[in-house]
Specification:
- This protein folds into two domains: about 150 residues, no CATH class; about 80 residues, Nucleic acid-binding proteins (OB fold (Dihydrolipoamide Acetyltransferase, E2P)).
- The chain is about 35% helix and about 30% strand.
- The protein is built from six helices and nine strands.
- The strands form three sheets. A five-stranded mixed barrel has the order 5-6-7-9-8. It has a two-stranded antiparallel ribbon with strand order 1-2.
- The radius of gyration is 23 Å and the shape is elongated.
- It starts with a helix and ends with a strand.
């Protein structure tokens, strides 16, 4: 449902009037007008905003937080600032996307003017990233992906190793599966029926699809609740 909402929103975004200058892209992101004038001039709580405004606010908050965290990282704070910024929208996908744009355009600047029909406490916001930020952002994306837990994930791969004690019904399987566009070793504990299927796939050298919750445990990938 969330993906459909995002897809529908992107269908409503339009290219705006061209501007003078190199690599300037203007996007018009629609938002419903404000029908009730708030008594408090501060931002409306995010959960009370329409989806269209939540998108732009979340994006700019995340970019601002990302910019501030990069400044801290350059002073020796490491990942701490970026990890704290996760709650406002910083993610592996965001870091990677900004890094790719920065490398392609040799730096980027994102500026947003809030719609006059739905004003906020500020009229305009701008945040920029230089080429020097790209490597830090790519490394942050890599670390985020190595640490995060992913629920109800479907993995495609092959059975590499099998291990089951003689008196046990369940068994431990090591898969060679595609994780973050790389072939990785993933361990999973399977029940008797699933383990039997894994044995047959291993013997016949057939690929398998396994679903579960993927997480990093030490230096290993582990799939829990696997089936």
């Amino acid at each position: 449902m969330a993906n459909k909402e995002a897809s529908d929103y992107m269908q409503r975004v339009r290219l705006g009037q061209t501007e003078h200058g190199s690599f300037v892209v203007t996007l018009l992101a629609p938002v419903p007008p404000l029908l009730q004038i708030p008594l408090d001039p501060a931002w409306t709580p995010l959960d009370d905003e329409p989806f269209d405004r939540r998108v732009t606010r979340r994006l700019m908050d995340a970019l601002d937080a990302c910019r501030a965290a990069l400044e801290l990282a350059n002073t020796g704070e490491g990942m701490s600032g970026l990890e704290r910024a996760v709650k406002v929208g910083v993610s592996a996908n965001l870091c990677e996307a900004v890094a790719q744009l920065v490398e392609y355009a040799d730096g980027i600047e994102v500026a947003l003017t809030w719609a006059r029909t739905r004003p906020g406490p500020e009229a305009y916001r701008r945040v920029g990233f230089s080429r020097a930020d790209a490597e830090v952002l790519k490394e942050a994306a890599r670390i985020f992906r190595s640490q995060r837990s992913r629920r109800d994930l479907e993995l495609f791969g092959t059975v590499y190793q099998l291990k089951r004690d003689q008196d046990e019904a369940a068994g431990l399987v090591t898969l060679k599966a595609l994780v973050d566009n790389r072939i990785q070793s993933v361990r999973a504990m399977l029940d008797q029926a699933s383990y039997s299927l894994a044995v047959r796939a291993h013997d016949r050298k057939l690929p398998v699809i396994v679903r579960g919750n993927l997480e990093r445990v030490g230096q290993r990938w582990q799939l829990s609740s696997a089936e």
